[in-house]
Amino acid sequence: MKKTLITTALLAVLGGAAPAAFAQAEHSAHHGGASAASEADAKLAEGTVKKIDQSAGKLTIAHGPLESLGMPAMTMVFRAARPNLLDQVKVGDRIRFAVEKVGGALTVTSLEAAQ
């Protein structure tokens, strides 16, 4: 009798949790676009282009913290993932950019003008 009561109580609790879990999942899925965009924005660092070296395919950026790499704010030289990235900016431009470690080198994989 006692086991039946415990089992019934457990099923009642779990049964009540399932709709709540489903509702939370549905809510998250509904707002997934905004959450995904916010997450992508969080991965972009802000900085100022200090130097562009077209022949080496590199740019120097004074940047804020690189959260994705756990690095503090500083000025660094980065490799450009594609040569056309260097054509999108000029010295002094404020930018938002994504950086990843590619083949052991810190590489700017995307950038955009900061607003």
Automatic annotation (TrEMBL):
Protein name: Tn4652, TnpA repressor protein TnpC, putative
UniProt entry keywords in alphabetical sequence: Signal
Secretion signal, residue range per the UniProt entry: 1-23
Stored Pfam families: CusF_Ec
Keyword Signal part of the UniProt annotation: yes
InterPro entries found in the cross-reference section: CusF_Ec, CusF_sf
Source organism, top-level taxon: Bacteria
Keyword Oxidoreductase: no
